[in-house]
């Protein structure tokens, strides 16, 4: 395996960077495919929505708090319970895009850094995953949930 200093001088990516990039590339395309499929299922009526399509325009002009109150829409992570509905099924692809960084850190970078015994970068990856997970958890609040 090439020395990292040589790779940097040559302007080349390291093997773990290539693996990370490939995982992001294929994960993004998978998420896009999921979004297309779930949106098609929603718009064709193949999967019943939580809020009927014909009622959506009634909610467009409302502030978020009023929309949530009037429609009964969930807040925070409560949307997961509604994945059987066409309009919430669309969130699967978006959630996959959002979690790709964590998946790629754990699937590509962390194993490579551990194998190299690069404990500083391993620790940074672990800390980044913890921070991203904490931010996504909703424990800290924010976003008006």
Report the total helices: 7
Structure summary, number of beta strands: 0
- SSE series: HHHHHHH
Q: What does the largest sheet look like?
A: none
Count the domains: 1
Structural class: mainly alpha
What percentage of the residues does DSSP assign to strands (E)? under 5%
Low-pLDDT segments, ≥5 res:
none
Mean pLDDT: 88
Distance between the termini: 49 Å
Q: Which descriptor suits the 3D outline?
A: elongated
Rg to the nearest angstrom? 20 Å
Query: Share of helix among residues?
Result: 55-70%
Could you characterize what this model shows?
This protein starts with a helix and ends in an 8-residue tail after the last helix. It has helices spanning 4-10, 15-44, 53-59, 64-71, 86-89, 91-115, 119-137. The model has no long low-confidence stretch (mean pLDDT 88). The chain has seven helices and no strands. With 145 residues, it is mainly α. It has one domain.
